Amino acid sequence: MMLNVLFAGAPARWDDYRRPLTDAISAAGLKARVATDIPPGEVDYIVYAPNGPVQDFTPYARLRAVLGLWAGVEKVVNNPTLRVPMTRMVDAGLRAGMVEYVTGHVLRYHLGMDAQIVNPDHAWTPAIPPLARDRQVAILGLGELGTACARTLARLEFRVSGWSRRPKTVPAVTSLHGDQGLRDILATAEILVLLLPLTAATENLLDARRLGQLPRGARIINPGRGALIDDDALLRALDSGHVAQATLDVFRQEPLPPGHPFWSHPQITVTPHVASETRPETAALVIAENIRRAEAGEELLYAVDRAEGY
Ligand code: NDP
User: In whole angstroms, how far apart are CA 54 and each of 49, 76, 136, 152?
Assistant: First the structure.
């Protein structure tokens, strides 16, 4: 049977995805038309991104599943017109990119690189950093991406702890959960990495009170979602010196508006949502495998739990 797979990612990405998707679906043993212009009533699967053309799933009467290209699903999870299973993207390329971003920015803060990179007065002030084994890194969100980052940082001998909803077992990583776990992980976090999804339970998680639970001089790296942090509370914590520096990749409004105080704050580094990107070649394999599973009546990989919001 010929399946109809609608590509409803960002239109500008169609050229990147057309060949990998077509090839991967064919390699999975399926016959499919993969296109951007299939009439809604004929569509079996939607390859979806929130910045694509589909916001209302109602006309897709025979739709079997929505296969997300993004890891974060907060923009679609509460869409009342979505009545079929949805999967999110877990992709080897996405994971590798995030590990590189987080490791790079952790090493920048750990080694105090800024003092040498920006040194207009040519000051000769040696400051020897501790070894990684004496540096505590905390990762909020020990899922696909957080765990991959935790493993790499632990291999570099950082003291790594992670916080998640349910307890986890990750070699050389201390796993914490629950309210007490959050207090404990924040209390020792010299470098804090946010890799939580944005849900009702995580929005503004890092408010003034919780920022206050960090040790003085903590550094924050947020490639998770902007709304995990209360913006004003972060600015106050930076201005008081309680938080020393922050690297922010994600924002409540993107692009970050011109004139937003984050742009000009000397202790904030803004990166333009580049921490990691779904890679068409590897992502297409995940999409194809999920179509194969759906057709075989098997459980989908990386299904979104709509009640939990991620
Ligand atoms: P996962 O769903 O695999 O992991 C999410 C983690 O957060 C899990 O460990 C989960 O706990 C934990 N979590 C969720 N809710 C809570 C809660 N209420 N309390 C405590 N822990 C919680 O997601 P990924 O690792 O794949 O992605 C994480 C996020 O990274 C995405 O949602 C997205 O926002 C962001 N992202 C950003 C990118 C960028 O370029 N900046 C690129 C890709 C993703 P448990 O394990 O118990 O379920």
Answer: 8, 10, 43, 37
Q: Which CATH class is domain 3-91+278-296?
A: alpha beta
Q: What is the CATH number of domain 92-270?
A: 3.40.50.720
Burial of 37 (0-12, 13-18, 19+ CB in 10 A): exposed
pTM strictly above 0.90: yes
Nearest alpha-carbon partner for 98 in 139, 148, 136: 148
Pocket lined around ligand 1, Cβ cut-off 6 Å: 71-72, 90, 94, 141-146, 163-166, 195-199, 201-202, 223-225, 249-250, 273, 275-276, 310
Q: Quick check: do 3-91+278-296 and 92-270 share a fold? A: yes
pLDDT in tens, 127-176: 999 999 999 999 999 999 999 999 999 999 999 999 999 999 999 999 99
Per DSSP (E only), the strands in 131-283 are 136-140, 159-164, 173-177, 191-194, 218-222, 243-248, 268-270
Q: Where are the domains of the chain?
A: 3-91+278-296, 92-270
Tokens representing residue 250 in the block: 């994600």
Q: Pull the structure tokens for residue 17.
A: 């995805």
Ligand 1: centre distance to CA 142 (Å): 7
Token pair belonging to 248: 């922010």
